[in-house]
Design goal:
Oligomer: single chain
Structural class: alpha+beta
Strand order of the largest sheet: 1-2-3-4-5-6
Shape: globular
Helix content: 40-55%
Distance between the termini: 75 Å
Length: 128
């Protein structure tokens, strides 16, 4: 019984010591890596999906790419993007939605569309 009393206070003491460390460590880790882990990246920029629309780029920069899947094909039971609309869009909210579109194209396949959008975005960001 004496051993049980000795182990019980050790467990509660260890839990008390561990609780603040456990709570503090994950918060610090989440705060530091939340943005990195939350969205996948392609060539160092976030790629965010909402249904059939993907946004590529950082909204804090002056331009982003919008990829809209217009049609899909089924290959081996999986749906694959077929026709994809690519738009280079300004993030300037003072412009009308129509004036925000800088470039627009349609490509076959998601990778081809994303590759084109990435090239447009890099060129436009270098221009300023």
């Amino acid at each position: 019984m004496a051993e049980e009393k000795k182990t019980a206070p050790k467990k509660t003491a260890a839990k008390k010591d561990e609780k603040p460390a456990k709570k503090a460590a994950p918060k610090a880790e989440k705060a530091g890596t939340k943005n990195e882990a939350e969205f996948p990246e392609y060539k160092g920029k976030p790629l965010v999906r909402s249904k059939n629309t993907l946004y590529y780029g950082d909204l804090n920069e002056p331009y982003v790419v919008c990829l809209t899947v217009k049609s899909e094909v089924e290959v081996n039971g999986e749906k694959i993007a077929d026709d994809v609309q690519v738009q280079l869009i300004s993030t300037d909210e003072s412009l009308s939605p129509k004036d925000r579109i800088i470039k627009k194209s349609e490509k076959k396949g998601l990778f081809t569309a994303l590759d084109l959008g990435e090239a447009w975005l890099e060129r436009q960001l270098k221009k300023g």
